[in-house]
Fold these 2 entries.
Entry 1:
Amino acid sequence: MTRHLLSAGDLSRDDALLILNTATELARLADRPIKKLPTLRGRTVVNLFFEDSTRTRTSFEAAAKRLSADVINFSAKGSSVSKGESLKDTALTLEAMGADGVVIRHEASGAPHRLAGWIKGSVVNAGDGTHEHPTQALLDAFTMRRHLGNLDGRRVAIVGDVLHSRVARSNVLLLRTLGADVTVVAPPTLLPVGVDGWPCAYSYDLDAVLPKSDVVMMLRVQRERMNASYFPNAREYSRRYGLDAARMAMLPEHAIVMHPGPMNRGMEIAAEVADSVRSVIVEQVTNGVSVRMAVLYLLLGGNDSAIGPPLGEPAIDTETQA
Ligand code: NCD
């Protein structure tokens, strides 16, 4: 049966813990002089990126290579996609080349779900529009567990442009599965319609939420997805919702600061906060490789306890979003 990683909501608690524990094992490899395992020798992983990416694409590439898979990097620029070739035709071409796994990033929410219906290989969602980014949520949970241990009852604040954030959606779903209490914090204009149906709390008041948080995850203001004015100006946004040193001081002593990158320094996060000892932002990137290795290993490694149910409905209704 074909198995995919399309939504963080498809993962049971056992699935999620299996991935995180496998990633812990694989992370040990990073300390060895030769960082390579033969596990996926002879398998082909295609990185199909229709949207710009630095961290995610290189992280998946490093992960696949450390497992000895052959990697084909496909970016829409310079391909026949710019001549108008459809996603389906592109997918069938890649399948004809023998792709065992396809890692896809696409500007359309739901594209990975469509792809999963067309090809035989496993599909991994590396970010679809404003919908989901499950491996980001997994690497975030991995990073939180390294610092805080078990996430049951831990309080996580996800702050900023929640409306356009696939990172927020996947994190809310996965953290809920792992037992954490999530609060999304944003101005009313940057919270989606229907947020009260999400499995988390929401607030407009960052200063009230910070003292009670074990983790604060800042989100990038995604101007490229904004077709209207969602706040008066950058200065006003950062005054109310930016994390500066004074605000960081309101956090409990053990709390950590996260950001999926790329950061707008000085907008949602001050440079001194991003570079402070509480920031685990660089570590998130490192952990991303181990977590993506675990996902590829479990999906493509021929392990019967592979993750995720068969193709299902998205867990968050994208139609309620702007
Ligand atoms: C995020 C993304 O692309 O969804 N970045 C990432 O994957 N590291 C978040 C963002 O673009 O702000």
Entry 2:
Amino acid sequence: MSQLRRSGPSTAGRVAAGVPPSGDPASSRDPASSAAPIAPHLLPLTAAVGADGRLLVGGVDICRLADEQGTPLFVYDEEHLRARCREAVAAFGPGVAYGAKAFLCKSMARLAREEGMLLDVATGEELSIALAAGASPSSLVLHGNNKSAEELDTACSLGVHRVVVDSSDELDRLVGALAARRTGPGGSAPAPQQALVRVTPGVEAHTHEFVTTGREDSKFGFSLASGAADAAVEAIAAVDGLELVGAHAHIGSQIFRLDAFVQEIALLVPFVKRHGLSELCIGGGLGVAYLNGEAAPSIREWASVVHAACASAGLAQQVRVTAEPGRAIVATAGITCYRVGTIKHLPGIRTYVAVDGGMSDNPRPVLYGSGYEAFLPRAASSPRPLPARVVGKHCESGDVLVESARLPADLAVGDVLATPVTGAYGFSMASNYNRLRRPAVVFVGDGKARVVVRRERVDDLLRLED
Ligand code: LLP
């Protein structure tokens, strides 16, 4: 058996400040390498190929797993998830939070907590799942650009680690939530709720427009340039029971160019200093490689650029610098397995390969034009000379999973086909379009597989109906 893995601690090889942004939108493929086997750095950490050419992850034969569990199937390498969490904690310290929106279920929340990460939750529902997983309120950071009174009530009465204040209207609701807490049945005054203020720094991150969040024209946060963020600090300071400890910004997602974070920090540090804040959270956003030939900075490289930028901007050493990586923790840990059902050769046009999932389990290609690779786990290191478009089974032509895939020439109906780097924003954005049942999620490690989320059944689809 050969280990497919490259060296190094993280999801990718080298620092890529100058590497073209990719994944979103579909980036150009290097023609020279297009028939090449799937690149090892796109596969989970423990991926290995047996003498028979079959892919094992966590010591588990992936084709056999797909036979046993059915398809589509989300498969996560548990060791990979743990390694990325540990890398984040080592790089940023214990204040670093996992951006749970990238992939959240109880087992993932537990795993991130076991490895020492806090959990960034963006809704009351994500908060409930984290609590159901046994996470303590003091390990949760509550985000969201339109938190309801109910979400704020819950967060304040539980006493979450941080509430991130996103708007003036939300601050009004927060005042109500804190007042309700003070007059509650508890008696003595509770400890102040610690908060961060979300600042929009006005940075153009070079990524897809829909996932850019840090520029002026944004629904998120208080603008730095207009002075709204300074005014928000004063407004927050005036609220009884609320303690402003720091500033938060998030400039976008799938960012390859670390200089965007350097810019963000250069803009935020004067704000942090001006208000004597003790914490700066730079958000998430680190990109990952999706295609052969791409490389992204590692979490460790990201953190060292962030720390150097903080130092050169004159941020005091005692200010806690934190981050909230989501994608960089989970994306490469996950692969999705499908079953090939139809192969349609259109001479002079293209080959369509239809699988048993589609835009309902991975809407990213449709939403953002994201590019992916495809390969056959039964022939994991085989060349892929056959150009093909991998499509799903939904009733629309736009239901594309891999626009420009390359596959082995002996591809056949019945094969298990896998898309790597599908651990982030696939399961979490999955839908029941065409009433497809959402796939199961399996963690693999030490030669064993455990189902952490079972596949939906038809009665799950019907249970809300009268
Ligand atoms: N913190 C905040 C406040 C965020 O809004 C996000 C992501 C993160 C952290 C984690 O960002 P990450 O490290 O995963 O880039 N659905 C899109 C991505 C949306 C990101 C939303 N916010 C996609 O599939 O590309």
